[in-house]
Amino acid sequence: MKKTLAGFFLGLIFALSLTLFAGENPLYIASILFKSAFGSRYDLGLTLFYTTPLVFCGLSVAVAFHAGLFNIGAEGQLTMATLAATALGVALPSLSFPFAPLLALMVALLVGALWGFIAGWLKAVRGSHEVVVTIMLNFIAAGIASWFVLHVMPNPNSQNPESALVGSGYMLKDYDPIARFFPDTPVSMALIVAIMTAIGVWVLLWKTTFGFELRTVGYNPDAANRAGISEKNIKIIALCLAGALAGFVSLSEVMGSSGQFKIGFSADYGFVGIAVALLARNHPIGVIFAAFLMGALHKGASDLDLETTTITRDFSKIIQSLIILGVTSHGLWSWSNRRRKDK
Amino acid sequence: MTEILLPLISLLLATLRMATPMIFASMGGLLSERAGVVNIALEGFMLVGAFTAAVIAFYTHSAWLAAFVALGVGAFVGALYALFVIEFKGDQIVTGTAINILTVGAMPFFTKILFNSTGSTPSIPLEDRFNFEPIVLALLLVASLTYWFYQTYSGLWVQFAGEHPEALASAGINVRKVRWVSVILSGGLASIGGASLSTFLASSYSPLMTSGRGFMALAALIFGRWKPLQTCAACLFFGLTDALQMRLQGVQVAGFEVPVQFIQILPYFVTVIAVAGFFGKSESPKALGKVYE
Hints:
The complex is a heterodimer. By secondary structure, chain A is mostly helical. Chain A has helices at residues 2-18, 26-38, 41-66, 74-91, 99-126, 130-152, 177-181, 190-207, 209-219, 221-226, 231-247, 249-258, 269-279, 284-302, 304-307, 315-328, 331-342. Chain A has one domain (4-8, 25-329): Orthogonal Bundle (ABC transporter involved in vitamin B12 uptake, BtuC). The longest helix of chain A is centred in the first third of the chain and has 28 residues, at 99-126. Helix content of chain B is 72%, strand content 1%. In chain B, strand 1 and strand 2 form a beta hairpin.
């Protein structure tokens, strides 16, 4: 825990001090990040909007990790799931609340799980490395989504690369206390679903037999085999679960805010999800807080364009990546100790 | 006769052109992965190379100098990757992802300082760009790497660092050093691949211009079963799909327009089939991804 926090701050401080090269004061930059992330109800709303998909993606990566799998494919899974939810909403626009969003979510979760299943099945049955497969599936998903959105259900009223709007019965807006509390922001009650899901994942992993089996497969596959736990089945189910968790992003993106599939809507949620899981050390409850931190960074950096002349919103990527490096390099501390001894 | 031959020749040339950046990057990936270090940072290395070369070529009007500087800067970023995964024992996939995100975020930082824009670099005039040289270099690289890999001691060291590091260590060779050198070279080579994008295929650097080519190089490496010649062949095949994709835009096949996106995802699709073992077994180096203490 200490090392994780130390790695986090090391990355953050190093990233901020890079702004010296651009002639900026790091403390000033830090204050902008903070103000822009939490400065007003509107800012906080946006921060929470970015937090929501990051919770789902962090959970997706974490669940797979507990089964000993690296799910780098949350991006593809959330893309396919969001596409499916949008497609349903465009194809059957007359369905009404609350049946419509529930059905759309079900379909999204199924498609996300299916996209995870491909990687899980290939891993368990054909021995293909899940990292390679999920990277490729990310690109395949992006290709399919771009074709489907631009050629099958484009928005007839816009030149932007986006799909047609789903039926109004799919939207949570009118029934959504979170959206009402943060007017004019895209945050929705998907946030509450995200927190509940995180608690649900915690219960699943630590309070059920299945969770015990899943963690055993990840922690000690030999012991799992001897105890009669099917490593194959668990791995397949774990990636299906991971895919479904990533699929929840559709709730926040389509039903919760935009009502359509905008190409490029995901601010690398799937990849930042890796950072979130890493920061949370794969603990489902920790994921909520880590996602909030990463969401705040993303929102905080969005005002850098306006507030400074040299630093842009892309700076959040620098901070995120340096934090990842700081947290993952657990050898950093023993390495520096060894160096000290050598001297 | 000529009406068949000419398009074929032009398709062949386009294939070679499109494959060139990927050949460089996949040979870099080959070095790193055969030495036992997973390299999904190829995409980031390429982006760094594309940007560096575009900037140097713009200021010095020399494509060769640009390629050399790109090699150096790429090697530096490769060394950074090596430091984190070999010395700090960071997870190779996580660290690679971080390097990719870092480069995407860092490039606008530099373009803003240098050119006061977050978009493309200024375009490089035709006479300051490469015409065909990178293609020749890429093919030479594959040939010399093949020779080095299978015919020299140091080539064998790299192979052993990835297959059986303990055996290499017991022969008195420092496994860490072999991996360091391989990863640094891998950064340099992938970076030249990126340089060939911005100073050969295009006329400037534009954000995200690698558009997944680093991952495609990785795919070619796996499709080519981590062997230089097969990997090069895989790159040529992916280059062909790239070249076809431009020619097939808007073409009707039996009254049905082939979506560009489907041709774009073909390489990834083929790779999934390949790693699933449907073209015979594709085995990775045994110690790939394992930290050597």
